[in-house]
Specification:
The protein has 499 residues and is an alpha/beta fold. The chain has helices at residues 2-10, 14-29, 172-177, 222-226, 324-328, 353-356, 365-375, 381-395, 397-400, 418-422, 424-433, 458-469, 481-489, and strands at residues 49-50, 70-85, 88-95, 104-107, 111-118, 129-130, 150-156, 161-166, 181-187, 197-206, 216-217, 232-235, 248-251, 255-264, 269-274, 278-282, 290-293, 295-298, 302-309, 314-320, 332-338, 435-441, 444-450. The chain is built from 13 helices and 23 strands. The strands form 5 sheets. Strands 1, 2, 3, 5, 7 and 11 form a 6-stranded mixed sheet that branches. A 6-stranded mixed sheet has the order 12-10-14-19-16-17. The longest helix has 16 residues, at 14-29. The site of copper (II) ion has 7 residues, from loops.
C-alpha cells in the first residue's frame, strides 16, 4: 500500500495514474496471480538516470520509482583470462568483466538508452540480444560493435520480468559458451515484494580441450560444444565462485530471493537448493507464481525468480540436480545461513565432507600451492602430500575412510596395505582403471569393485597417491604426474570375458 500512496502524489498523467492503480490493485488482490504483462506508461519523465550495474552474485538495489524514466545503461565487453577452476585458466568473453555479465535493473515502462562498448583489447566484434526487448533481434542488429567501438540503441521495457541477455554475434554458440550472458530485471511498476536478501546466480556450460580440472590454460573446444558434452557446468562462471569464503551468506529467518538464470549454451538446468523448499518460484521468469517447489527447470536462455525463507542454520548447497554436473563438473554453490539452532525443525549435524567432497571445503589452498609449484618446477613431496590430502577427503575417504582403515569385508585398508606398499606403481593403474575381482590385502580377501577414478587428472592422481604413501604408517615415497601420464597412455588389453 505504501508504494501506491507514494505513486498518487508523484503521478502526472491521469492515464498513467489509472494504469498504476489497476496494477497496484491486481498485485494486492493476489500475489500468485499474474501481474500485468505489458505496459507503456508514456514518455520518460524527469532527468535521465544512470543504471547501477552489479557483478554477480550481487543485485542492484530496488528501483523505488513511481514514474517511467530514461535510464542509461553502459556495458563494456571485455575479453579476459580468468580461472575457470583451481589452476585452470580460460579466455572468457564478458559483459562487464564478469561471467555472468553485470546485472541490470530497470522499471517497467522505462526507456532504456543502451550503450554497448567493446574494449580496444578485444579480438572479436560483439553485440547484445536482450530478451526483455520488444524488437527485431532484441537489440542485436543495432549493437554490432567492433573492438574499440561503441554502439547505442534505445528500447522501452514493456514487459516486466527477469530476462536473459546474451551476445548474438556469429558463431553465436561460441560467444555464449565463452560467458557472454547475463540478466536484466524489469521490475513491475509497484516493485517486487520486499525481501531480506537478493542474489544473482547464473548457470552456464563450458567446453575445454583438456579434461575437467586439467591444469593450465585451456582453449575452447568447438567439437565438444557441438556434441553438447561440457567439461564444466558452473554457477557464475567458475568452479568455487560461491563456495568457501565466497559462499553466499544469510541469517536465519530471512526471506531470500535468487534471480537464477541459465546462459547455456546447451544444457537445461534442474535448479535445486539442498535442504530448502522454494516457497515461491516465478518459473521461466514469467508472471505466474508456483509455490512449494523442490526443483525448478530453467531453460537455456531462460531465468526464474526463486524465493525461500531461511529457518535452520547451516550450509545449503545450490546444485543442478542433474547431479553429475554438481559433483563432477562444478555446478555447485553454497549459501551459509547463520543463526541459532532450530532443533524443533531439524535435529541433525552439518552436511559432512563425505557428501560434498572437496567442493565444500573452505578453500583448496594446498591444491593451488601445489599447482603453482608444479608450474615453476619447485614441487616438493610435502606440497604433493598437502594437496593430495585435501583431494583424498572428497574422492577416496567415502570408501577407504578418512584414516585409511577401510571397512572390514567391504573396502580394503590403504593404511599399511601390503598390496599398496609392495608395488606403488600398480596403484596408479588401480586409480585410472579401477579394480574388480578378488584381491588380498594384509591376508584378507576382498571381492568387490573399485570404480575407475579417471575423472582425476595426472596431478591429482600423483598427489593423492603421494599423500596415501606418506600417511598412516605407509612406506613413503612419491608418485610423479609424468608417471601417471605414462600409465594413462598405455593401451590396456581388454579383459577377456569371464567364463
Ligand atoms: Cu560476443
Amino acid at each position: 500500500m505504501k508504494n501506491m500512496l507514494r505513486g498518487f502524489s508523484a503521478l502526472l498523467t491521469p492515464g498513467a495514474l489509472l494504469t498504476t492503480l489497476l496494477l497496484a490493485f491486481t498485485a494486492q488482490a493476489s500475489e500468485t496471480k499474474a501481474i500485468k504483462s505489458s505496459g507503456d506508461f508514456g514518455p520518460p519523465q524527469g532527468p535521465a538516470i544512470h543504471a547501477v550495474l552489479t557483478s554477480p552474485p550481487f543485485v542492484p538495489p530496488p528501483v523505488r520509482r513511481n514514474y517511467p524514466a530514461k535510464v542509461i545503461v553502459e556495458l563494456e565487453v571485455v575479453e579476459k583470462e580468468m580461472a575457470i577452476s583451481e589452476g585452470v585458466k580460460y579466455m572468457f568473453w564478458t559483459f562487464g568483466g564478469t561471467v555472468p555479465g553485470s546485472f541490470i535493473r530497470v522499471r517497467q515502462g522505462d526507456t532504456v538508452e543502451f550503450h554497448l562498448k567493446n574494449h580496444p583489447s578485444s579480438k572479436m566484434p560483439h553485440n547484445i540480444d536482450l530478451h526483455g526487448v520488444t524488437g527485431p533481434g532484441g537489440g542485436a542488429s543495432s549493437s554490432f560493435t567492433a573492438p574499440g567501438h561503441e554502439s547505442q540503441f534505445t528500447f522501452k521495457a514493456l514487459n516486466e520480468g527477469i530476462y536473459v541477455y546474451h551476445c548474438a554475434t556469429a558463431p553465436v554458440g561460441m560467444h555464449v559458451a565463452n560467458g557472454m550472458y547475463g540478466l536484466i530485471l524489469v521490475e513491475p511498476p509497484q516493485g517486487l515484494p520486499a525481501v531480506d536478501r537478493e542474489y544473482y546466480v547464473m548457470q552456464g556450460d563450458f567446453y575445454t580441450t583438456g579434461k575437467y580440472r586439467e591444469k593450465g590454460y585451456q582453449p575452447f573446444d568447438m567439437e565438444k560444444a557441438i556434441d553438447e558434452k561440457p567439461t564444466y557446468v558452473l554457477f557464475n562462471g567458475a568452479e568455487g565462485a560461491m563456495t568457501g569464503d565466497k559462499a553466499l551468506t544469510a541469517k536465519t529467518n530471512e526471506k531470500i530471493r535468487l534471480f537464477v538464470g541459465n546462459g547455456g549454451p546447451n544444457l537445461v538446468s534442474s535448479f535445486h537448493v539442498i535442504g530448502a523448499i522454494f516457497d515461491k518460484v516465478r518459473f521461466e521468469g514469467g508472471s505466474n507464481v508456483q509455490t512449494n517447489v523442490q526443483t525448478t527447470l530453467i531453460p537455456a536462455g531462460g531465468a526464474a525468480v526463486v524465493e525461500y525463507q531461511t529457518k535452520v542454520p547451516g550450509s545449503y548447497v545450490l546444485v543442478d540436480h542433474s547431479i553429475f554436473r554438481a559433483f563432477n563438473k562444478g555446478a555447485l554453490a553454497i549459501m551459509k545461513v547463520d543463526g541459532p539452532a532450530r532443533k524443533d525443525i531439524y535435529s541433525g549435524k552439518e552436511l559432512d565432507s563425505v557428501y560434498l567432497g572437496d567442493r565444500a571445503q573452505a578453500n583448496l589452498a594446498a591444491v593451488s600451492t601445489a599447482t603453482k609449484a608444479a608450474e615453476s618446477g619447485t614441487l616438493t613431496v610435502q606440497d604433493q602430500i598437502n594437496a593430495g590430502g585435501q583431494l583424498f577427503t572428497g574422492t577416496c575417504s567415502v570408501c577407504h575412510q578418512a584414516n585409511g582403515a577401510g571397512l572390514p569385508g567391504v573396502f580394503p585398508p590403504l593404511a599399511q596395505s601390503d598390496y599398496l606398499n609392495s608395488d606403488p606403481q600398480r596403484s596408479i593403474s588401480v586409480l585410472l582403471r579401477g579394480l574388480t575381482g578378488k584381491v588380498t590385502v594384509n591376508g584378507k580377501e576382498f571381492d568387490s569393485v573399485m570404480p575407475a577414478m579417471n575423472q582425476l587428472n595426472d596431478d591429482e592422481v600423483a598427489n593423492i597417491l603421494t599423500y596415501v604413501l606418506n600417511s598412516w604408517g605407509n612406506k613413503g615415497g612419491r608418485v610423479q604426474a609424468s608417471e601417471v601420464k605414462a600409465e594413462r597412455a598405455k593401451a590396456v588389453p581388454v579383459k577377456a570375458a569371464a567364463h
